[in-house]
Amino acid sequence: MADRLKLDRIAFYGRTLAEYTRMYALDLAALRGQRVLDCPGGASSFTAEALSLGIRAAACDILYGGDMAAVLAQGQADIEHTVDGVAQVAHMFHWDFYGTPNGLKTQRTAALHGFAAHYPGGGRYINARLPRLPFADQTFALVLSGHLLFTYGDRLDYDFHLKALRELYRVTAGEVRVYPLQGLDARPYPHLSRLLDDLRAQRIHAEIRPVPFEFQRGSSQILCLSRSAD
Ligand SMILES: C[S@@+](CC[C@H](N)C(=O)[O-])C[C@H]1O[C@@H](n2cnc3c(N)ncnc32)[C@H](O)[C@@H]1O
To answer: What are the pLDDT digits (tens) for 72-103?
Structure first.
């Protein structure tokens, strides 16, 4: 039986506000009026949905800025690629939230459509390539980063992870939350304790916290970087 999700590329893929709320243990009422960055946003409907709740959300991704039809086609192709891959290793996931691979595809498609409807005129989708971000220091109250760091730890090296986390931290006045902490093999990122040591050595308060969501088995924690200890 295969023991890792096989993805041949970093998927342009996204999630809904309902999923983000669980993944990052968000208190949506407390975020009203606050600036929140989703980086990378991918094909997530979080920004569109959060704005409708009065949260001042924005997203960035290396694929933003491209032609709408090309971005949508990439999103559709990556839903097929990823959901097929997940179905091959369904035993590595908990299915209480999505039910079946078809249920997962329905959620991913809803996220893509929510994103696509908002992307053209929103002005909230900024082209950026980690580990550099085009924002001033402490611009956002909260920065969310899902399914890039750690997830693709098999092809993004340690230096990239450390630089990207420092940059995400630079642009927040409050917290950075990163989910999940595992790779495509569902194992915890192998260099996590070194990363925590390096961040703390740079006077960044870093801790692991539980969250009320677990799709990939074992993925019920976030890494939280905060300025609370400054
Ligand atoms: C799987 S999606 C994650 C989307 C969303 N955060 C979520 O959890 O659903 C990963 C995204 O990372 C983007 N990406 C890959 N390398 C990047 C980089 N160096 N800087 C910014 N975005 C990047 C891809 O274009 C893709 O949209």
So the answer is: 999 999 999 999 999 999 999 999 999 999 99
pTM of the predicted model as reported, rounded to 2 decimal places: 0.97
Say if 25 falls within a structural domain: yes
- Number of folded domains in the chain? 1
Ligand 1 site: residues with CB under 6 angstroms?
10-15, 40-42, 44, 61-63, 128-130, 146-148
Is the Cβ–Cβ distance between 150 and 178 less than 8 Å? yes
Task: Classify residue 189: in a domain, yes or no.
Answer: yes
Q: How far is the CA of 57 from the centre of ligand 1 (A)?
A: 16
Domain limits at 198?
17-135+160-226
Residue among 43, 2, 25, 3 at smallest CA distance from 180? 25
The predicted-structure confidence for 162-221, as pLDDT tens digits, reads as follows: 999 999 999 999 999 999 999 999 999 999 999 999 999 999 999 999 999 999 999 999
Task: Report the chain's terminal Cα–Cα distance, integer Å.
Answer: 47
Ligand 1, atom 24, lies closest to the CA of 12
**Ligand 1 centre from 60 Cα, in Å?**
9
Structural domain includes residue 144: no
10 Cα: distance to centroid of ligand 1 (angstroms): 7
Calculate how far, in angstroms, residue 186's C-alpha sits from the geometric centre of ligand 1: 18
| CATH code at position 189 | 3.40.50
In this structure, is residue 149 part of a structural domain?
no
16 phi/psi in degrees, rounded to 5: -95, 170
